[in-house]
Amino acid sequence: MGNGGETDFTCNFKKSDDTWVLEDGEVTIKWDTGKAVAIVKSDMGDAESCQMILGVLALDTESEGSSSCDGSILLMEDPDSYKDLSREAMYDMYCVD
């Protein structure tokens, strides 16, 4: 039993897996390139809202990741936030043994 903080949950994947699903599926970490790439899912309520947000995100020239809509679900790729963290560090940060 932990403190109820955001990172206090058990992971249902192995440290060696290439895909980690965190936070009830809201965040997926892919290790295909050897670096952590986060894919964050956000429900925008409806497909039209998602497309509108996608249009705004397209204007952000600083962002390295790509974004897309799956119906009302916005999928944002984030290759930067965790790129310097090792699997070990990420696993220790997110997973409770």
Set down the secondary structure blueprint.
Layout: E1 19-22, E2 27-30, E3 37-43, H1 47-58, E4 67-70, E5 73-78, H2 87-94
Antiparallel strand pairs: 1-2, 2-3, 3-5, 4-5
What is the gist of this entry?
This protein has 2 helices and 5 strands; from the N terminus they run E-E-E-H-E-E-H. The protein is an alpha+beta fold and 97 residues long.
How does this structure look, described?
The chain has 97 residues and is an alpha+beta fold. The protein is 21% helix and 26% strand. The protein has 2 helices and 5 strands, in the order βββαββα. It has a 5-stranded antiparallel sheet with strand order 1-2-3-5-4, covered by helices on one side. The longest helix has 12 residues, at 47-58. The model is unreliable at 1-5 (pLDDT under 50).
Strand content: 25-35%
**SSE arrangement, N to C:** EEEHEEH
User: What are the low-pLDDT stretches, counting only 5+ consecutive residues below 50?
Assistant: 1-5
- Helix amount, in percent? 10-25%
Please, what is the average pLDDT?
A: 87
Annotation, overall tally of beta strands: 5
Distance between the termini: 11 Å
Our Rg estimate from Cα atoms comes to: 15 Å
Q: How many discrete structural domains?
A: 1
Q: Helices and strands: which structural class?
A: alpha+beta
Overall shape: globular
The biggest beta sheet, please? Answer: 5 strands, antiparallel
- Number of helices in the DSSP assignment: 2
Give the spatial strand order of the biggest sheet. Answer: 1-2-3-5-4
